[in-house]
Amino acid sequence: MPLFGNKFSPKKTSPRRSASLSNLSTIDEAQKAAEFGLDYGPIRVKLGGTEISYHDGQWISEGGGSGVSQREVVKLKKDKQKLEEENNLLKLKMQILLDMLAEQTCESHLLEKEVQEMRGGRGRKK
C-alpha cells in the first residue's frame, strides 16, 4: 500500500441512460416533411413592424405599412448621386486651390531669396 494513497479520487459512476427530450418520434412523416423538408418556401423576416421576404436574390417588402415607398427610394438614390457628384467637384476644386497655394508659396520663397541676395550683394559693395 502506498504511503500517500489516492484518497481524493472519486469512484467512477456508471453512465446514465439519457432520456430523449425530442418529440420527433411522435410526429408523423407528412408533418416531418412539411417542417424539415427541402420545400421551405420563401424566407420571411419581420423587423420593426415591417415584414420582408427573400425572392430571387432580393429582399422584397411584404406590406405597405411602415416601409419606404419605391418613389422615396428613387428620390434618395438621385439625391445620393447628386451629392456624390458635388463632393467630387469640391474635392477637385480643393486640389486645384492647394496646387495654386503651393505654386504661390514657391514663387514667394524665390522672390524672398532674390531680395536677400540683392540686399546681401549691396552690403558687400560698401
From TrEMBL:
Pfam families for this protein: Chibby
Coiled coil: 66-100
This protein's record includes keyword Coiled coil: yes
Swiss-Prot/TrEMBL keywords: Coiled coil
Stretches the record annotates as Disordered: 1-23
Extent of the signal sequence: none
Name of protein: CBY1 protein
Higher taxonomy: Eukaryota, Metazoa, Chordata, Cephalochordata, Leptocardii
Gene that this polypeptide is encoded by: CBY1
